[in-house]
Amino acid sequence: xxxxxxxxxxxxxxxxxxxxxxxxxxxxxxxxxxxxxxxxxxxxxxxxxxxxxxxxxxxxxxxxxxxxxxxxxxxxxxxxxxxxxxxxxxxxxxxxxxxxxxxxxxxxxxxxxxxxxxxxxxxxxxxxxxxxxxxxxxxxxxxxxxxxxxxxxxxxxxxxxxxxxxxxxxxxxxxxxxxxxxxxxxxxxxxxxxxxxxxxxxxxxxxxxxxxxxxxxxxxxxxxxxxxxxxxxxxxxxxxxxxxxxxxxxxxxxxxxxxxxxxxxxxxxxxxxxxxxxxxxxxxxxxxxxxxxxxxxxxxxxxxxxxxxxxxxxxxxxxxxxxxxxxxxxxxxxxxxxxxxxxxx
Length: 345
Prior knowledge:
With 345 residues, this protein is an alpha+beta fold.
């Protein structure tokens, strides 16, 4: 048999075998063939160093690739912005560039510069263990934060996006502060001898202070949202609030901050014969631990309030949400307390 006849015979045999396969078997063979071609044709960059960047309460996996690029993982990027861990897909920007899910909202488009659209592509890489992963350039994070803050300034944010703007502001301040410290360390040569986690510790300290500054103990929005969830008319901060709001504050805040905290705070500042206290309960919280914990707790509560209002939930459903995520504590005190300043005569 000639070579031409042999090739024709093989082709006929191959088509016959293919025709005899079930549809599922054909799909599986095609997948394996595509994977083999991908592995043969594409060499992915590999992570040489991996770790976790801690910003506030978020722990963001990050990596440095063998080509020098710094990445934040896809899920970590979403967590940093206060979004769900799983992206819901990408869409085309101006028809030719894939945009990450956190920039696909139509109301954000006017605030996204063209250069950001070009540089925000997802990066596929191999982890140090050899598995495939997805991430975004680390320098993309502050740029995305700026998009949300510009949209906020223009009054273009949706109610479901406002918590991202709060997170973006905190992130930008923390990253900028840490960046200048790193530059000073590099210029002076101190980076060679500083403790390995020094910058991380500094970032956490800055973030805690910024969260505390934002909530100013109890933000006006916290009380206004209580009225919205109860279906009451909001009179503004200049009017006396319903007395039951004080009960809500005790329940949502002080009974959930730390075990046994509320009874201890009340014993520090008992009521007088008129039923008033000489100091606010939060005045006894320490600057080192108590106030940062209160700040983060209030931040979470306001976010849950916004979420409940945006979804049309009422008061009872909101409280159930809080009970699931921020349950009341036990009876063992853990927070150190400070003596408040005495009023001047």
